[in-house]
Amino acid sequence: MTETRVCVGCGAPLQSTDERMPGYVPASHLEREDVLCRRCFRIRHYGDFTPVVVDEQTYQREVATIFDRPGLVLYVVDVFDLAGSLIPSARRFVASSDVLVVVNKVDLLPADVGYEALGDWIRGEVRATGVEPLDVVFISAERRHGIDKLVDRVARETKRPVYVMGMANVGKSTLLNAMVERLSERKQPFTVSRRPGTTLAMSRFEIDGPFGRVELFDTPGLMYTSRVIERLCGDCLKWVVPRSRVRPRVYQLNPGQALFLGGLVRLETLGGERQGIVLYVSNELPVHRTKRERADSFFADHRFDILKVPCERCAESFDDRRSWLVAAPPRHDADFSLGKRGGDIVLPGLGWIAWTGQRTLARIEGPTWLALSMRPRLV
Ligand code: GDP
What ligand 1 atom has the least distance to the C-alpha of 141? Predict the structure, then answer.
């Protein structure tokens, strides 16, 4: 019988087929003695956390540790994809822990966004999943905003474990790297050491800080299939995922017009008055306005050139479509009823549409799996 070889750092079984999964090493290293998986190697030598992604079953098994040993949980979410950041089963394992919701990627938000309203909305969405947050904090892991405060908070946790938790791609690894970088820059020297573990993908670190030793756990990332990010190829994502601060795009729409957000989402004004809408989506996403009666033929002719995304290979994921009715004043058949101040229709992973119309009747069409929602206007 051949023995399963494990990483001497984290205990994950070694494999050389999937770089995002635990225990990855290039095939040429497999034969060596005392092998560190690539992730452990990078952490040890460069302080670099690289994401580890696992399936649902493994995830459940790993995070059960949090239930057994409650502590402080940093629940990292992506401000542009909150729906895609919420971990469906989180309630079950964070029940006895304190949960700090860490809202990442705020560098992408327009400057005039109302953080209080945003915090309230996020708190409400997290609560709706059965998790009661202690607090909501805003950061940009990539730009290193808000990291100092978070590090100060973590450094005080000498009595119970700290867990960093988040869906794949919310920026969990970037945050861990940012925290470790900050810790090691401090005058009072911090040291971070990785402790060999026995679990598959939950990695344990010890940090010596000014108040004592902090035990920090990095949890694996979980993947969804109903997120824009998992439905599009790398080329398509260049148009869709905001890379820099989103510039609002303002449109005055007359009834009977259609607005394409790439070939992903279509907005049509059916009635009401001329109205203002503001798009908060990636600056790269092609947006095209036309008359409603020309919209179908425009789409057929130009989905792969002017509208760019999804490309022919990714298009299949977007063919199964549904529509949502948006109305002001409220109507019983509307999916979203706008109040006096209008509202934001949130397109998870893409951004949002802000409506100012007092008398509005519109239809939004998009893929069935895109979980649209409404919130009070942020801007
Ligand atoms: P993980 O899978 O949760 O560990 O996520 P990563 O740390 O690998 O980040 C996923 C993607 O989000 C990468 O493309 C990062 O560059 C990006 N990202 C992470 N943090 C930020 C941030 O603060 N701002 C922006 N704009 N992008 C970020």
Answer: 23
Cα–chain-centroid distance for residue 159?
A: 30
pTM: predicted TM-score of the whole model, two decimal places: 0.91
CB atoms inside a 10 Å sphere around CB 301: 12
Kindly give the distance from the C-alpha atom of residue 5 to the centroid of ligand 1, in angstroms, as a whole number. Answer: 31
Of 222, 253, 277, which closes a domain?
Answer: 222
State the 10-residue block means of pLDDT for the chain, 379 residues long: 76 88 90 87 78 85 91 97 93 95 97 94 96 97 96 94 94 89 62 56 79 89 85 95 96 96 97 91 98 97 97 94 95 93 95 90 96 93
Q: What is the rounded CA–CA span in Å between residue 276 and residue 252?
A: 5
Spatial strand order of the sheet with 336-337 comes to: 287-291, 257-261, 265-272, 360-367, 321-328, 336-337
The answer, yes or no, to whether any atom of ligand 1 lies below 6 A from the CB of 107, is yes
What is the whole-number distance in angstroms between the Cα of residue 142 and the centre of ligand 1? 7
As beta bridge partners, residue 42 has none
What separation in Å is there between the alpha carbon of 173 and the centre of ligand 1?
Answer: 7
Same domain, 201 and 274: no
Cα(257) to ligand 1 centroid in Å equals 36
From ligand 1's centre to the CA of 75, what distance in Å? 14
Q: Where would I find the beta strands (DSSP E) of 82-157?
A: 98-104, 133-138
User: How many structural domains is the chain composed of?
Assistant: 2
The answer to whether the CB of 268 is under 6 A from ligand 1 is no
* Residue nearest ligand 1's atom 24 by CA: 105
Which domain covers residue 337, as residue numbers?
Answer: 242-375
Is residue 300 located within the same domain as residue 354? yes
The length of the chain in residues reads 379
Q: Specify whether 156 is located in the same domain as 208.
A: yes
Residue 214's contacts (CB-CB under 8 Å, 6 or more residues apart) are: 154, 155, 157, 158, 162, 206, 207, 208
Distance CA 120, CA 69 (A): 29
Residue nearest atom 17 in ligand 1 by C-alpha distance: 171
Q: Does any domain span residue 296?
A: yes
221 close to ligand 1 (CB < 6 Angstrom): yes
Q: Based on the fold, state whether residues 101 and 142 are members of the same structural domain.
A: yes
